[in-house]
């Protein structure tokens, strides 16, 4: 396993339309294992292969939910006593994913992206969708998705078409976001 470099805007490779995977071989497994390592190290919850410069239709996602069977940890970060649970890993791999029937109803989430560091903005997307995809062995599956998973997979699938979440914003908001990113890079 190895951590690969994550491409960031305005790298033109992020605009590439990725190619379908046809070989379910060791090279694919190595790519996926590197993508997980890169995503966890960043840290992030989703990564498309093109974000590490590989123009293949491969996504990894891990929403890293709280593990409610683990020992709760008391917390007071907002001035109120409550508990958090440690997160657990739920790694998911999607090869050649397709969206079958996006809902008309939209859901809005504040999105970010490892290729657009430090920028967050609300994006509306279909609230639910059915996804057809292949696993690492080439087996085809279909799954209904909702909530954060539906948003995340649509965000990652956009990367396969060369689209970033900031492309869903108005030109004004996108330019403001890119300006902010440029300023932060100059300050760094
Ligand atoms: Ni992204």
UniProtKB/TrEMBL annotation:
Binds 1 Fe(2+) ion. Its EC number is 3.5.1.88. The keyword Metal-binding applies. Coiled coil: none annotated. GO terms for molecular function: peptide deformylase activity. Keywords: Hydrolase, Iron, Metal-binding, Protein biosynthesis. The active site is at 156. InterPro entries: Peptide_deformylase, Peptide_deformylase_sf. Pfam families: Pep_deformylase (PF01327). Fe cation binds at residues 113, 155, 159. It catalyses: N-terminal N-formyl-L-methionyl-[peptide] + H2O = N-terminal L-methionyl-[peptide] + formate. Removes the formyl group from the N-terminal Met of newly synthesized proteins. Requires at least a dipeptide for an efficient rate of reaction. N-terminal L-methionine is a prerequisite for activity but the enzyme has broad specificity at other positions. This is Peptide deformylase.
């Amino acid at each position: 396993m190895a951590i690969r470099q994550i491409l960031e805007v305005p790298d033109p490779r992020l605009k590439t339309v990725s190619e379908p995977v046809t070989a379910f071989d060791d090279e694919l497994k190595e790519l996926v294992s590197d993508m997980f390592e890169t995503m966890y190290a960043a840290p992030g919850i989703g990564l498309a292969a093109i974000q590490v410069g590989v123009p293949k239709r491969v996504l990894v996602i891990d929403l890293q939910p709280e593990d409610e069977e683990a020992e709760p940890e008391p917390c007071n970060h907002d001035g109120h006593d409550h508990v958090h649970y440690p997160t657990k890993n739920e790694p998911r791999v999607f090869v050649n994913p397709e969206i079958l029937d996006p809902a008309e109803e939209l859901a809005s989430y504040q999105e970010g992206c490892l290729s657009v560091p430090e920028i967050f903005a609300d994006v509306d997307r279909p609230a639910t969708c059915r996804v057809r995809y292949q696993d690492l062995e080439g087996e085809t599956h279909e799954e209904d998705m909702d909530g954060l998973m539906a948003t995340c997979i649509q965000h990652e699938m956009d990367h396969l078409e060369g689209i970033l979440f900031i492309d869903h914003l108005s030109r004004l908001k996108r330019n403001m976001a890119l300006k902010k990113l440029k300023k932060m890079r100059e300050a760094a």
